[in-house]
């Protein structure tokens, strides 16, 4: 911890720019009519647009059209579209007013936003005008859209869900401030070197970031380290206070969150870390330049990079620094900036509902207690009464290893006052436990927020559950397992605290924007209301029996396939053959998601053909498309990626297959690729071991884009199958109780290997080194983990999976029947809109309402 990190008070009075964040507006009463007029919006016309664009290009980019680069043109276009949104943002994105409904404060360490330009053009209905206006300037809109690097400020499901949720709240006219971290480097860019994943830094800011508005004047000082000391206050009460050791500045960057065609623009506020005192001149003058700027680099590290793990916390100190950094800045921001001066904090929960997106922001609970007790002088009970009304907690996982436990040693060193407060919260809580469940010390020990073994630590999920008004899972099965298996003691103690809100996805990005052909067909058939009332897709049901509609539907799917073929050729040099069933598995690489099971299906098919057990002509022409990043530290996941690429190499080159089975693995799966892949898919692979995938959201995107699902009864698959109907869903495998049963009785994967010849042949082919001629044992680790432990029972579900795949081939052979099923998947998946999820959160947890 550098000693030169001091606060801003060093600057002399007359040099210091005003930092009083409450001073707004001109110092004198403005008299010019424009100064008091509402902020203008450029004319909504091609001409008006061209004028605005050229103005931005010349003045903002400082180039003439004739000398402008594509990046100049993209940045000018972005700021032009921003200008159309600005007036609305200033009107609707401002400070929440006393008479306005409660604000939703969404606290998330991740936001997987995807490209912004397309969504902004959609939300403002500027796409056509922009296309025409740019064409008049000799520019192709699509080229500029491809110039945008997506902000990859998230790992996977949790981060993308946050992005869908804030889009829905804006579209539903609900006040929301999304709070998070502006990582300088987002999720790594994945490349393949000889089939192995190699991570490259995500330099998303390099070519400029036109969608953010920095507000250095609104920076917040965030403290760390130091110690606490007790003192007796004026009324003789023994109190404790924090004496921090060092601090950093949190600088806010505001992003627009435009509602769809409703003129509302909410705000996403992402914090970036800066040194309070960037440069130590004395040290510099003493010639130790590195030391002089060490404070800066040290501070900036906090928001430098996103942790690429999406299941196993590494327990790194920097990760905890990140969590406290954005939470402290966000609470300070809302309490001291958004709320009007002198607001009575007893009524805080009337003005905001903070939602904890998993345990990552739960340090917000002791932080709010610290603010109320130490800074605002409330007594403990008062403070707890306020705090325990302000938070909802969403759990996104079932994996025990994904539940964060911060060692008290680390927490006490970084946040000594917060550890004290957590101890007190736990004390008060255990007193309640003992009162409600007398003479049951075992229960008290089980429920303690403080774990003693293997080392003393704070169980963040327990802290969140104790403090939250509501705890929800993200799919019915998940929420049930949370009650029964993950937090049973808490469910028994607080039965009404537990609820469910099944995930959803935004139809704006994942249907309207990603699938224009299908969108037009739907709108031409049932009108355009579906984009904000997705349940109206139901009106498509009768058209499943309409041959013309089916033909048009197939045409849209084919158009998406052709678009994907062109993209993968240009992007990855991948040839997608014509007329193949597109079997797609895209999600993070994790053993519980069972990419290995998909791989065993491919290798088994391949082995049967090359061994002559089946003729190539018996194989339904199929291309399996994988998309998956592995956490860099997750060795077995990276090995699995390597194996998939090596199998692909062999299968794709083997003439004996007569081109009827192909494997494609485009690198760097992200939101932008998902928008092209998902609309083109026929089959959606949702094959996790039952009881492992909290919900899944890819499954919903596929169903809404007319792909049929092959899946287990896991997460939201259960609800998808219930709504689309068994005839239009390929269910296989054990359900959760059967998995528990098999686990209890003792699972021996080797038995399944021995008794299933096809499975044995497939595994033996890999073990023979057939796919790794240079090193026969290259994939031993992957295969032996399946043969010896197979924690996620891929071998046990193999048979049932293969049987289901046979049903897929059979159904696909009847294109009309398949198309009918696909249409019914679309028609019956309106429930999976994130707008519906938001309605559920509003009703069950937040109790706010749209601004009228
Ligand atoms: C600390 C390491 C870490 C980081 C992220 C642990 C766990 C996470 C996330 C909770 C993992 C995640 O993204 N979970 C996914 O959340 C989705 C949205 O609710 C669900 O649809 C997925 O089923 C769930 O795996």
TrEMBL record:
One of its GO terms (biological process) is glycogen catabolic process. GO terms for cellular component: cytoplasm. Allosteric enzyme that catalyzes the rate-limiting step in glycogen catabolism, the phosphorolytic cleavage of glycogen to produce glucose-1-phosphate, and plays a central role in maintaining cellular and organismal glucose homeostasis. Phosphorylase is an important allosteric enzyme in carbohydrate metabolism. Enzymes from different sources differ in their regulatory mechanisms and in their natural substrates. However, all known phosphorylases share catalytic and structural properties. InterPro entries: Glycg_phsphrylas, Glyco_trans_35, Pyridoxal_P_attach_site. It catalyses: [(1->4)-alpha-D-glucosyl](n) + phosphate = [(1->4)-alpha-D-glucosyl](n-1) + alpha-D-glucose 1-phosphate. This is Alpha-1,4 glucan phosphorylase. The modification N6-(pyridoxal phosphate)lysine is found at residue 701. Residues 1-40 are annotated as: Disordered. Residues 1-10 have a biased composition (Polar residues). It is an enzyme of class 2 (transferase). One of its GO terms (molecular function) is glycogen phosphorylase activity. Its EC number is 2.4.1.1. Belongs to the glycogen phosphorylase family. The keyword tRNA-binding does not apply. Its cofactor is pyridoxal 5'-phosphate. Keywords: Carbohydrate metabolism, Glycosyltransferase, Pyridoxal phosphate, Transferase.
